[in-house]
Amino acid sequence: MKDFRVSLIIPAYNEENTIVRSLKNLTSSKQSFRLEIIVVCNGCTDRTETFAREFGPDVIVLSTAVPSKTKAINIAEKIARFYPIFYIDSDIIVSVESILGVAEYMQKKGILAASPKKTFALPKKKDLIHRYYEIWTDVQTHNGEMIGSGIYGVSEAGRKRFDNFPDVINDDTYFSIQFKAKERKIVELFSFTIFPPKNIIDLIRIKTRTKIGNILLKQSYPELFQNKEPTNRRYLLKSISNPGKTISILVYIMIRLAVSLNSYRLLLMRKQIPWFKDESSRV
Question: Between 20 and 30 A from 190 (CA), which of 65, 92, 149, 231?
Answer without folding.
Answer: 231
